[in-house]
């Protein structure tokens, strides 16, 4: 009856629908605002505790939903509200360097320093060398990339994809949060077409707390290429950091004293993915799925 109820009113695979319900309920429990009507939250909670419902309660749930409303659109709108709220929180949490003093100027480029202050920055690592004396005359990002894999770093975790010691790291502050496609507490294995990884919803602190090593946030700027706002330097400024900043129009450098912050251990749990009908062919009950036992 669970699959019948989900299929009838939400037109989705039960496994994938329950994943999304769990994500939505987890997120709204962490935020101060009531962005989803309580009556609908009660309905969603019943799906996660479906096997604890009596037969009468299951029939009542079915009859409650059988009211002529478009529940597919309703759930999509609720989930979209949560996404918008989460992504705006992420954007609002990012560092504003106008509140920091300029520590020094190197070759006409302003340098800011983080020496124990709380902060969050959206970053992406590159293959542009921080030092070796043989620098390209472009940085791969410049004017080219619309879809960019990034990570949120902060005082509780500085871990990024790649080697922060050898490759230039870029920071971003100027982007439309509506253009975030995926957020995940590990590597989401994304490409320009997205991923089948289950995109999660977090508060900024929640994302960093959940991060196993580095997290991934896929941003797809629809109108023009995403433009870096800073070059992020771990511990000191290298020649390549300055070269990259100049190639990108003289953007500022932010130097992070890593001794004052934390790195998460390199650990990756199994990746959560949405399932296709073929993958769910042999499932006869959702009773044993972990997130159903609430």
Characterise this structure:
The protein is of the alpha+beta class. It folds into two domains: 2-92 and 274-292, no CATH class; 94-175 and 221-260, no CATH class. The protein is built from seven helices and nine strands; from the N terminus they run H-H-H-H-H-E-E-E-E-E-E-H-E-E-H-E. It has helices at 2-10, 14-28, 38-48, 55-65, 71-93, 204-210, 239-247; strands at 104-106, 109-114, 120-129, 147-154, 167-172, 180-184, 216-220, 230-234, 253-256. Strands 1-2-9-8-5-3-4-7-6 form a nine-stranded mixed sheet. A hairpin with a 2-residue loop joins strand 1 and strand 2. Mean pLDDT is 87; it is low at 290-294.
Figure out the total of helices: 7
Weakly predicted, low-confidence segments: 290-294
Structural class determined from secondary elements: alpha+beta
- Whole-number count of domains: 2
Structural shape: elongated
Q: Whole-number radius of gyration? A: 22 Å
Give the termini separation: 19 Å
Order of helices and strands: HHHHHEEEEEEHEEHE
> How much helix is in the residues?
25-40%
Strand residues, percent: 15-25%
Main sheet properties: 9 strands, mixed
């Amino acid at each position: 009856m669970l699959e019948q109820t989900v299929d009838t009113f939400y037109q989705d695979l039960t496994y994938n629908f329950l994943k999304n319900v769990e994500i939505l309920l987890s997120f709204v429990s962490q935020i101060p605002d009531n962005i989803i009507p309580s009556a609908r939250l009660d309905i969603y909670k019943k799906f996660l505790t479906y096997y604890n419902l009596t037969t009468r309660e299951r029939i009542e749930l079915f009859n409650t939903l059988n009211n002529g409303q478009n529940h597919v659109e309703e759930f999509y709108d609720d989930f979209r509200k949560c996404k918008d709220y989460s992504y705006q929180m992420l954007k609002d949490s990012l560092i504003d360097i106008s509140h920091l003093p300029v520590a020094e100027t190197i070759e006409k480029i302003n340098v800011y320093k983080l020496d124990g202050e709380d902060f969050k920055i959206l970053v992406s690592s590159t293959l542009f060398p921080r030092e070796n004396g043989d620098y390209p005359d472009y940085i791969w990002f410049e004017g080219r990339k619309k879809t960019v894999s990034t990570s949120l770093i902060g005082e509780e975790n500085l871990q990024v994809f790649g080697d922060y010691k050898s490759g230039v790291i870029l920071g971003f502050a100027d982007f439309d949060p509506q253009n975030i496609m995926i957020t995940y507490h590990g590597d989401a294995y994304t490409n320009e077409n997205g991923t089948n990884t289950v995109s999660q919803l977090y508060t900024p602190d929640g994302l960093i707390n959940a991060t196993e090593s580095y997290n991934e946030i896929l941003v797809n700027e629809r109108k023009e290429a995403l433009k870096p706002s800073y070059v992020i330097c771990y511990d000191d400024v290298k020649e390549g950091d300055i070269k990259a900043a100049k190639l990108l129009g003289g953007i500022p450098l932010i130097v992070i004293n890593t001794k004052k912050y934390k790195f998460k251990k390199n650990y990756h749990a199994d990746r959560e993915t949405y399932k296709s009908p073929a993958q769910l062919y042999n499932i006869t009950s959702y009773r044993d799925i972990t997130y159903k036992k609430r």
